[in-house]
Design goal:
The structure is a single chain. The protein folds into 2 domains: about 130 residues, Alpha-Beta Complex (Aspartate Aminotransferase, domain 1); about 260 residues, Aspartate Aminotransferase, domain 2 (3-Layer(aba) Sandwich), CATH 3.40.640. It is about 40% helix and about 15% strand. The chain is built from 14 helices and 17 strands. The two termini are about 35 Å apart. The structure holds 4'-deoxy-4'-aminopyridoxal-5'-phosphate.
Length: about 400
């Protein structure tokens, strides 16, 4: 029996995708850091929009358009509440975390960073929180500095502090690492960046499904996340930004909906958040994301965090019991992500073999090649757990790994 603080079996019934069979076996889905399954409530919200509520938003006086606009803006309010932002105008819809980070690099970086200014990231960033800053540094002649992590996969905070200087203009850091599971001390990082007068962006792509986030208490300037990693639709994400900063920033993309007036001589931009939402948005995605926020709130992030902690402890012990298995990422503060390597079995081979047992794990560099370099491995296998996973599923993974080991003996 799984000891839980909520009824996992009942919650699993909310996710139709958990019911599929792979190679004739019940699916064990352990790839939640790549994307999460959607509860029926989210699927229904998206379907309902397309079945009976299809309309563009913000532009129509007809009833359907007004209803779609209301649903769209209600979602924005739900997201504001979910991450505890002060105002709905601070919630900008993007395609995902990637676009949110690119928006800040392009708009804020383009307008306010200059030759010789410094940007600090960490060694454990996802490529989407590395490459936009590299491109910005190349175009503005800024300097990119990288704060290292130790062999447990923990940020070496003192080394981060040493990188801060009067020239630090921006810090961009991941809250929860997708390949290591490390939960970074972002509050300390934010406060330290602010003491130097730098702005700070938090990559929350792996955070919002695991931990309750309060952007006001954190006092971060920007916070990015993707809908599909928090049980919402893909193709929709969020950039939170402080109103006073967003107001000062130039638009990122230009076109319909982001203007106040246009003549051939001059265009005036409209107000937040629309200034950053050019063109027809992903209306169904936004509505679906609102439903995901409702769903996660109903389960309760504190319950989720507690249960995932229990799963993580169980999974860590179970995997560690496998002879030769090396866990990659053993930070004291971790979310439920288990990366590992095995001697003599390439992660891709392992991924293929466990797939035959109906088990979905991710193998590869997880868009964090510098992390792989740190540990001297080309790739890892990664099991990423969420609240609909069970200890029984972890047992199945262990069994499948042992079987793969036998094959490769
Ligand atoms: N940051 C982290 C930590 C991630 O895990 C991911 C997705 N793997 C991203 C950013 C980018 O998210 P998306 O691809 O949804 O834009």
């Amino acid at each position: 029996m799984t000891k839980t603080i909520f009824n996992v079996k009942k919650l699993r019934a909310d996710f139709p995708n958990l019911g599929v069979r792979i190679h004739g076996k019940p699916l064990v889905y352990l790839d939640n850091a790549a994307t999460t399954f959607k509860p029926q409530a989210v699927i229904d919200a998206v379907t309902e929009h397309y079945a009976s509520g299809t309309s563009n938003v913000h532009r129509g006086v007809h009833t359907l358009s007004q209803q779609a606009t209301n649903a769209f803006e209600r979602s924005r309010d739900k997201i504001r509440d979910f991450i505890r932002a002060e105002k709905s105008c601070e919630i900008i819809f993007t395609r995902g975390a990637t676009e949110a980070i690119n928006l800040v690099a392009d708009s804020y970086g383009g307008a306010f960073l200059n030759k010789g200014d410094e940007i600090i990231i960490s060694e454990m960033e996802h490529h989407s929180n590395i490459v936009p800053w590299q491109i910005l540094c190349a175009s503005k002649e800024c300097v990119l500095k990288v704060a290292p992590f130790n062999d447990q996969g923990e940020l070496i905070y003192e080394e981060f502090e040493k990188l801060l200087s009067p020239r630090t203009k921006l810090v961009a850091m991941v809250y929860v690492s997708n390949s290591l599971g490390t939960v970074n001390p972002v509050k300390d990082v934010i406060d330290a960046a602010h003491k130097k007068g730098a702005v700070i962006l938090i990559d929350g792509a792996q955070t919002v499904s695991h931990l309750a986030v309060d952007v006001k208490a954190l006092d971060c300037d920007f916070f990015a996340f993707s809908g599909h990693k928090v049980f919402g639709p893909s193709g929709i994400g969020v950039l939170y930004g402080k109103e006073k900063l967003l107001n000062r920033m130039p638009p990122y993309q230009c076109g319909g909906d982001m203007i106040a007036s246009v003549t051939f001589e001059k265009t005036a931009y409209t107000v937040l958040p629309y200034k950053f939402e050019a063109g027809t948005p992903n209306v169904a995605g936004v509505i679906g994301l609102g439903a995901a926020m409702d769903y996660v709130r109903s389960v309760g992030l504190d319950n989720i965090a507690e249960y995932e902690h229990e799963l993580l402890a169980y999974g860590t012990k179970a995997l560690s019991s496998i002879d030769g298995l090396r866990l990659i990422g053993t930070a004291e503060h971790k979310a439920s992500i288990l990366s590992f390597v095995l001697p003599n079995i390439h992660p891709h081979d392992l991924g293929t073999l466990v797939d035959e047992e109906g088990i979905a794990i991710r193998t590869g560099h997880h868009c964090t090649q510098p992390v792989m370099k740190h540990f001297g491995v080309p790739a890892t296998s990664r099991a990423s757990l969420t609240f609909y996973n069970t200890k029984e599923e972890i047992d199945k993974l262990v069994k499948a790994i042992l079987k793969a080991k036998e094959i490769f003996k």
